[in-house]
Design goal:
Radius of gyration: 19 Å
Largest sheet: 7 strands, mixed
Structural class: alpha/beta
Shape: globular
Strand content: 5-15%
Strand order of the largest sheet: 1-2-10-9-8-6-7
Bound molecules: NADP nicotinamide-adenine-dinucleotide phosphate
Helix content: 40-55%
Order of helices and strands: EEHEHEHEHHHEHEHEEHEH
CATH class of the largest domain: Alpha Beta
Oligomer: single chain
Number of helices: 10
Length: 289
């Protein structure tokens, strides 16, 4: 934990490192018990360079944590049906414990239909409707990775959402909606804002916890922040810029995540953790199934 004069910086980079170390120990334990490593299958449709970089990063982190990865690159012309066939094949393959379909897929592909082809037991990226329902009901299941990372950051800094007012800016299926669901399941009073929300600054001023997931650089201004609030910046824009005007917000926040080094590193660490969870669950108590 690093103190500035105004706010505590929530260090996701350090937290993610210790989190990945624990996951690596558990992956080694899985290998000792079963004679094989946990395995994450990654699927990338098309050749978007940013998506290719994300997938490579995930594979590298897997390797360092003792998790195998198996990559399926597919051409940009892949149809929804072809993609679903590939994902169903991975869902049925007993050697694969977790499946990650890199988002976004090309526009002509029905991403929701492709996500739903992932066996919920292997949905380690938390993208299926099954996982969303588990998050919303506060039941065991896989978290959407960035929202799960945000909750783990809050826990690590002893920020209990229960009884607090949380304002989430953004309602995307991979970020705004699931983080709202997780905060509600943890007894926060949650307002989810979006592009049609009137007077957003006034809504944000009510928040004990602000989650910015907008995709617009420095969109959330410092004078929107209630003094002492916890400010979580999930944004990641070109030039390593978040969705919060950090220099302004840090003057009023009680705690704040930097960009980079805040939410970002937690995302992959949750993916790895959940891949190992999936491997243990699929192996069963005696490690044989
Ligand atoms: P997205 O799908 O584009 O969603 C953006 C959301 O912001 C939408 O719900 C949109 O509202 C809302 N929004 C846009 N303009 C707004 C405005 N003027 N006022 C209020 N709300 C507005 O983006 P995303 O995938 O959720 O990503 C959000 C950010 O998080 C991006 O910076 C992205 O790079 C980052 N991200 C980081 C990680 C990580 O690992 N750290 C992972 C994923 C994403 P409507 O629904 O009304 O359009």
């Amino acid at each position: 934990m690093t103190d500035t004069s105004q706010a505590v910086l929530m260090n996701g980079a350090d937290l993610a490192r210790s989190h990945v170390d624990r996951t690596a120990d558990r992956a080694a334990e899985f290998e000792r018990r079963t004679g094989r490593r946990p395995c994450l299958a990654t699927v990338l449709v098309g050749d978007d360079p940013a998506s290719a970089t994300y997938v490579r990063m995930k594979q590298n982190r897997c390797r360092r944590a003792g998790i195998d990865s198996r990559h399926t690159p597919l051409p940009a012309t892949t149809s929804t049906g072809e993609l679903i066939d590939v994902i169903r094949g991975l869902s049925a393959d007993p050697e694969v414990h977790g499946i990650l379909l890199q988002h976004p897929v090309p526009q002509h592909v029905d991403e929701r239909a492709a996500f739903e082809a992932i066996d919920p037991a292997k949905d380690v990226d938390g993208v299926t409707m099954h996982s969303f329902a588990a998050m919303a009901f506060g039941l065991d299941g896989f978290d959407s990775c960035t929202p799960g990372g945000i909750l783990r950051l809050l826990d690590a800094y002893d920020v209990d959402p229960a009884g607090r007012t949380a304002v989430v800016i953004g309602r995307s299926p991979i970020l705004g909606r699931p983080v709202s669901a997780l905060l509600l399941a943890r007894d926060a009073t949650v307002t989810t804002c979006h592009s049609r929300t009137p007077d957003l600054p006034s809504a944000v001023r009510t928040a004990d916890i602000v989650v910015a997931a907008v995709g617009r650089p420095e969109f959330v201004r410092g004078d929107w922040i209630k003094p002492g609030a916890v400010v979580i910046d999930a944004g990641y824009n070109p030039g390593n810029v978040g969705d919060v005007a950090f220099d302004e917000a840090v003057e009023r926040a009680g705690m704040i995540t930097p960009v980079p080094g805040g939410v970002g590193p937690m995302t992959i660490s949750v993916l790895l953790e959940q891949t190992v969870d999936a491997a243990f669950r699929q192996a069963g108590p005696d490690g044989t199934s």
